[in-house]
Amino acid sequence: MKCRGFEIVSGWEARGIRLPVRKTASSAGYDLEAGADVLVPAGKMAMVPTGIKAYMNSDEVLYLFVRSSLAARHHIVLANGTGVIDADYYGNEENEGHIFIALQNGGEEDVLVRKGDRIAQGVFQAYLTVDDDRAGIGAVRQGGFGSTGRA
């Protein structure tokens, strides 16, 4: 039985996408790579496709963090600070759960992110809920990126 992991999004199988891996035995994060070349203009934001999706248990989340080398060398940060991939994002009908990384360029020069560049780290985490939590009773995700709570 599969608990958590990564898969390549349909239609991206022939594009040379590599599944995220941890680089050392003590690394918490799985390195996510850019699935295509994307220009992140100075002072602007760009969405970078990864070509992957993540599955996990219903009480888990995948947190995304920008790689520190992007921040230190190129003034690139995640547009939303920390990315949150919910368990029910996987397999949604809008985009199958395709993970995009929202990069913000705080520098004065455009930055070209190349396919295969390691741009983010993904950390799986179990989470807790409050007593009498009723979220999700009868609710099913109705879309992809940014769809939580959207009517």
UniProtKB/TrEMBL annotation:
Enzyme Commission number(s) from the entry: 3.6.1.23
Any GO BP annotation: dUTP catabolic process
Keyword Hydrolase carried by entry: yes
Domain of life, per lineage: Bacteria
UniProt key word Cytoplasm: no
Keywords linked to the UniProt accession: Hydrolase, Nucleotide metabolism
Domain dUTPase-like as annotated: residue spans: 18-148
CDD domains cross-referenced by the UniProt entry: trimeric_dUTPase
Single GO molecular function: magnesium ion binding
Catalytic activity line of the entry: dUTP + H2O = dUMP + diphosphate + H(+)
Gene3D superfamilies: 2.70.40.10
InterPro entries cross-referenced by the UniProt entry: dUTPase, dUTPase-like, dUTPase-like_sf, dUTPase_trimeric
Family (UniProt): Belongs to the dUTPase family.
NCBIfam families per UniProt: dut
Database matches in PANTHER family: DEOXYURIDINE 5'-TRIPHOSPHATE NUCLEOTIDOHYDROLASE
Name the record gives this protein: dUTP diphosphatase
Source species: Selenomonas montiformis
Gene name tied to this protein: dut
